[in-house]
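Fold these two proteins, one after the other.
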Amino acid sequence: MTIEVRNLVKKYGAFAALDNVDLKVDTGELLALLGPSGSGKTSLLRIIAGLDWPDSGTVSFDGEDALSRGAGERHVGFVFQHYALFRHMSVFENVAFGLRVQPRAVRKSEADIRKRVKELLDLVQLDWLAHRYPSQLSGGQRQRIALARALAIEPRILLLDEPFGALDAKVRKELRRWLRQLHDEIHVTSIFVTHDQEEALEVANRVVVMDKGKIEQIGSPSDVYDNPATAFVHGFIGESIVLPVDVVDGQLRLGDKVLDLQSQGAAAGPSKLFIRRHDVVVGPAGSGSLEGAVKHVRAFGPTQRADVALRANGDETLIEIDAPRDRELRPGDIVGLQPKRYRIFGAQA
């Protein structure tokens, strides 16, 4: 099932939740909508589901107008962050619910319903919990049951809104690997909303990065991480050092210091230098384009993270760097810092 969104606009008073959004989701794809709160990702998901309506624009499923149909007619499975399981029903009956309330003309027989529920509980690896109630399950188990319930009606599209947001970090990691494997088995066109960049990069085929109702970039996980299209994407995905610089006569300046870095064709004037923390080579004083004093060091595993104070025009800028532990850093050390990779964006980007 292909989903196509064209010129979608959704406003709440003067606030534009969606501002002329265009998006195409391919059949069988697992797509992540990634962005901060208020970026428009949940508004977009709800409009696709039929739970909300745009002010203008179109949504089509396999070329057919989806906006002419209500939520119940779109054949979409929806998984919420807080499970929305029926507390008075067993796990089995929760999964069977969507099948039991279908119109008589299309409703399966009781034997077929029980067979379908058994298949789904096997699929989510929780058949042994069929007779328990939601209150007797862990958060991860409840979310898997919610997913099984959404799949029971054999949806053409599966939508997930922050599906792991209510779970602790360890369970989230386990479930997102499980979701990736599950999707490889069922191949249902799926969209999930998240503000967790690691989750999006690990699970999705493609990532849509949103901010202020607009799409900033669409690409593979490696694409949006390694080749961010805008300053926002670079700053939002991964952990970046951001320094205010000036481009003067094709040279980069940090305060009164000329940096031994290419300006990457940036226009003259104020710009921003973006560097991933792990893309900095740490050496002795005088060895890099940047230089600073180590203020604080935290070591864990093979990595040490250090706060380094850079000086320019008498001002001090504190940055964080990651470095291997082959050379132990100590507070007071003067170090040279040389970016291996970096990007220059205009100050207004």
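Now the second one:
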Amino acid sequence: MSAIATGEGQEAVALLEQTRETVTPELRRAVEGLPGPMRRVAMYHFGWEDADGSPSAGRPGKALRPALVLAAARALDVPGGRAAESAVRAAVAVELAHNFTLLHDDVIDEDPKRRGRATAWTVFGIPDAVVTGDAVMALALRLLADDPHPAAAAAAARLTACVIELCAGQQADCSFERRTDVSLAECTTMAMAKTGALLGCSCALGALYAGAGPDEVEAMDAFGREAGLAFQLIDDLIGIWGDPEHTGKPAGADLLARKKSLPVVAALTSGTDAGRELAELYAGPMTSDDIRLAAEAVDRAGGRDWAQAHAADRMGRAVQQLSRAVPDLGAAGGLLALAEFVTRRTC
């Protein structure tokens, strides 16, 4: 996947790289504090070690969520303030929470690859991957519990509530695989919980560490949620048409798993012949030819166009919410660049 070569894209790439340089030392210190067996799984999952414990130059994550924390803190900080510096632990906490979900999602979805190499559960087994995910989430909350910043308690409470919502979204996503009557409204609500909630929480934590008031914090949360839904729509498109060289996953992985992603549900509920063809394909096991036919059916039923248009609409809503918190959007350039970057990825 790639970003369109715009000024915003270049700014976002620089922000993400700067964020990785800022948060990785604290993130690594936290992970290295885990007991031996879990530390080994986590170090592998984060790409720092190979399965045998030797150093690795694995592909790092995007660091989008910690970047949102720091960018939100900067956007709402007072002139000359150091809110972003004080929010590093919060940024690490959301990255740990995100990786808790990835470790569990890979098990639930039986994904064999992440970031171009074997997933942790396929290397170390399901029990070790699940338990390590639990421990990584506990690390996130411990970081906030030990943080002396006055916003830390509110941040911990908010992150905890977010993770509960996120888990509810994951549970709904799993339940959809067993149903044939999933509505587009249900699927949108699921995606908002599963993806939008943590992006919203990231922005809200940055606002809290900048000393923002309740209205600004809620507006930042809403911005992140709307941008997060746009992100999920694009991610769902990539899950169907993405290039394995860029995604690190097999082509059509979501179709193979018969996921009820947003473009798929838009197609299934379209009332078209192509939508009915897709429903028939989803009713049984998928061959490689079936995956190709399913992707074509989603496209012909309008699922692809709907997802692209809806992603643009959600980004418009996100900007409206951001302007409530930061009336001068020039001060929120980092947030806008990050949101634009993740919703301009290509398949």
